[in-house]
Amino acid sequence: MSATKCFYLTLILICFSSHSFASLEDDFQTAVYLIKQQQYSDAIEVLNDVRKRGMKKPALYHNLAICHYKLDQYEQAEKFFVKLRNFPNERMQAEFNLGLLALKQNQPERARKQFSYVKNNANNKKLVTLARIQLGELKQVPVEKSKQWFAYLSTAFGNDSNVIADPDNGAIINAGSHYFSIYADGELILVGDEDNGVSFFASTSSTDYSDFPVYDYAQTSFGLQGTFQAGSWDNLIRYRSLQSTLGSIDYQKTSHIELSTSAYLNSDFRFRLRYRHYDITSLNPAYSYLSGTRQRIRAEIKYKAQSNYAKLYYELETNDRVNSATSNYSPTRHSFRAFYKHVITEDLSIRGDYSYRFSIYEAGNVSPARDDERSRYGLRLTYRFDKNWKIRAKYEHTSNESTLPASYSYERDVTSLELIASF
To answer: Which of 38, 56, 101, 381 has a beta carbon 3.0–4.6 Å from 232's, enabling a disulfide?
Structure first.
């Protein structure tokens, strides 16, 4: 099957999943309305119906548990809180709710065990604080409202043993340099929330080389994204516009559209399918050969347990660039990547990363055919020293082997120390 057909098939599958689950989602929202009206028995009836018809998302089990809890039907409430344990992102909240349920059932020892478990194992500091309050270790504090904005900032100082002159085509200069980089992004939810809503986002980044300022790289972007749930699938539609500079001159303007959908396969594994289409315009005539389009489709599996997190994906990339008279800049690429993160303590984690990319450049009128194999591995150690601040040490090694070794084979080592803030 051609890459183009794969892309269209992906779009059809995403649209089909949205259509198939539309009536389920409508009925689910009806149940949410009934809960707000405190009509818990009616809400349970609707929720049980959509559950039998295939909905399995965490919000379904949470609402069923709450309805039974409000009706003092503690045995049924416990059954659905226990089901929430199967969703990694919901597990600690479920454990905390089971503690509250034990208090309602006059089981103080069981409640103490639940709250102690949450205190010792949850990564969410707000949940840890609530557990400590229930254990009598802290006084009651006001509950914070759900955030409508998010921000992230990082600065890094490091050394690059082999500066990549052109970020898009991978041309190299076979020389190293110290560098300083900064990255910032933010998101503002305009309507709804993280799971079902519309938000605006923007980012800016720059990398400045001490020895080769002509290869400094900077990029700014902004866009809109919408998220919605369809049955057990979480879906996203995103538009982003980017503009970059290389050295002190304009480099490229890019716009891309992203579609993705994801769902839990079981309690620990989550599957995601993502498609991106890029329209690329060169802002400098010297790089006009890079203008054109790029498409990427990715299938990935994520694993998340209490102290371990892993991700594995395969990505297909196709390019249709202008190309130059002597070189082809429209590769077809196959990429594989895997990383594993282990949480050593609540504030300290280590992560290993490995990727492999195979690129095929077809022969042109003058340009020869070319194949590249790039392998990359890295290690990073992250320490959180404050609620909002982290420090990170990183090392990354890249090796590229090409059938045209004189121009495209290289080795590269990058080390850095990074300060990160998130709000």
So the answer is: 56
Question: Shortest CA distance to 203 belongs to which of 188, 218, 183, 217?
Answer: 183
Residue type, 249: I
pLDDT tens digit string along 137-193?
A: 655 545 455 678 999 999 999 999 999 866 666 677 788 999 999 999 999 999 988
72: left (phi over 0), alpha (psi -120 to 50) or beta: left
The two structure tokens encoding residue 139:
């006084």
- CA distances 123 to 88, 117, 342, Å, are 12, 12, 13
Which residues lie across from 336 on neighbouring strands? 314, 356
- For residue 21, count other CB atoms closer than 10 A to its CB: 22
Q: What is the DSSP string of 78-126?
A: HHHHHHHTTSTTTHHHHHHHHHHHHHHTT-HHHHHHHHHHHHHH-S-HH
Paired residues of 257 in beta bridges: 239, 277
What single DSSP character describes residue 175? -
Predicted model pTM? 0.69
What is the per-residue pLDDT across 234-264, written as a single tens digit (0 to 9) for each?
Answer: 899 999 999 999 998 999 999 999 999 998 7
- Work out the angle at residue 60's Cα, subtended by the Cα atoms of residues 11 and 37, and round it to the nearest 5 degrees: 120
